[in-house]
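REVIEWER CHECKLIST
Item 1: Sequence provided? yes
Item 2: Single chain? yes
Item 3: Sequence as submitted:
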Amino acid sequence: MDVSKIKKPLVLSVLFFLPVFFLLLLYPSKHNYETLDVVQTNIPELYDFKTLEGNSIELEDHLSVVGFFGTNPMDDATFALNLKELIYDKFFGFKRFQVLALVPHSAKHQVLELNKELNAFAPLQYWKFAFGTDQAIREAYTNFKITRPLSLNLSSNQVFVVDRERHQRGRLDDRIKSEIKSNAAVYPMTSYDVLEISDLKNKMSDDIRILFTEYRQKRKGNFSSTARRANDLKQ
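Item 4: Structure as written out by the authors:
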C-alpha cells in the first residue's frame, strides 16, 4: 500500500474539518445575550427644541445620545470632542443613530464655532445641536434618571442613551466581578461621563453595541426580553 497516497487526503481532510469542528464548539445552542437595562421609561419628546436649521428633533424610532452643553460650549469643548471621537465616529453609520446636543439660545455663536470645529474633516450628519429656552433645558434634564444636578450654566459632563421607544438605557447593576464576589452594595450607571475615557470606551461603547444587537435580533425574530447582558459580550 502506498502510504503517501493515503497521507495526503488524510491531511487535507483534517485541515478542512478541524476549523469547522472548532466553530461548532464555539457556536452557542441559543442566541442569548444580555439586553441593556431600562432605567427610566417614556422620556418625553423634545418638542421645544430646534436645530441650527430650524428643524424639529425626535427621539422616537432613533437610538439617541443626549447631552447638555450649556451656555458656553466652547469652554467645555472636551465634552463634544470626546463624544465625537469615541462614540459618534464609531456608530454614526448605523441606522437611526443620532447625537443630540441641547443648548440654550444664548449659546448660538459658540455653537457655530464648535460645530465648525467638529465638522472640520467630515460633515457630522447625525450630530445635531438643538436650541431651547433655559427652562426647556432644565425640564429636559429632569426627565432623565440621574442624581447629579445640572450646572448653573446648563451643562453636564453626563450624557444619556435613549432607545427607539424613548426609554433611557443603562445599567441597574454596574458592579465589577470583584465587587459582586465580595457582595458589595449594588449601584447603577444611568449616564456616562464624557470626561472619563474609560466610561466611553469600555462601557458606553459596549452598551450601545448591545442595543444595536438587540434591534438586530428583533428584526431576525431571535430577541428574548428575559436575557440579561452577558459578561462575555465585552470580550
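Item 5: Key structural point noted by reviewer: The mean pLDDT is 85.
Item 6: Recommendation: ____
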